[in-house]
Amino acid sequence: MEDSIEKTIELKATVARVWRALTDHHEFGEWFRVRIDQPFEAGQVSTGQITYPGYEHLKWEARIETIEPEKLFSFTWCPLAEGDDVDYSKEPRTLVEFRIEPIPDGTRLHIKESGFSALPEDRPRLDALRRNEEGWEGQCKHIAAHVEEG
């Protein structure tokens, strides 16, 4: 089984602009389609509510792992958690990493979600991988529209 999803997108925006879209919890929420309760802080849990159409019934909970200014932002989250009664502290997690680098026309954003092979076999981990693969395709379009607008 594959362990990770990787996406790379070139954005016509500065590194500073892309960084702000990734790490400001309000901006992240706009393009990612989630209402986040508090600013991101390394080592802390981020909570909120998904606002993406069709997924509004899901909570947002991620542990912020790394905030390395204008280079790396990462968090872990629970790709199998669905529903209001989920105890996120007991759910298996994957690692999501956003790496950015300057390029002549803007910024290259590399997104990687890893750890799918460690998900329990009795849960639909292949479904989680496929669902998130499609999700990252959409999120690449969302962040591009967000940082490249006007």
Q: How many distinct beta strands?
A: 7
Helices, by number, come to 3
The H-level CATH homologous superfamily, spelled out, is: START domain
What is the radius of gyration computed over CA atoms, rounded to a whole number of angstroms?
15 Å
User: What is the CATH topology?
Assistant: Alpha-D-Glucose-1,6-Bisphosphate, Chain A, domain 4
Q: Biggest sheet: strands, sense, closure?
A: 7 strands, antiparallel
Helix/strand/pairing category: alpha+beta
Question: Unreliable segments (pLDDT under 50, ≥5 consecutive)?
Answer: none
CATH class (first level) name: Alpha Beta
Fraction of residues in helix: 25-40%
What is the beta-strand fraction?
A: 25-35%
User: How many distinct folded domains?
Assistant: 1
Strand order of the largest sheet: 1-7-6-5-4-3-2
Order of helices and strands: EHHEEEEEEH
Structural commentary:
The protein has 150 residues and is an alpha+beta fold. It has one domain (4-148): Alpha-D-Glucose-1,6-Bisphosphate, Chain A, domain 4 (2-Layer Sandwich). It contains three helices and seven strands; from the N terminus they run βααββββββα. The chain has a seven-stranded antiparallel β-sheet. A hairpin with an 8-residue loop joins strand 3 and strand 4. Helix 1 (15-23) crosses helix 2. The longest helix has 24 residues, at 125-148. The radius of gyration is 15 Å and the shape is globular.
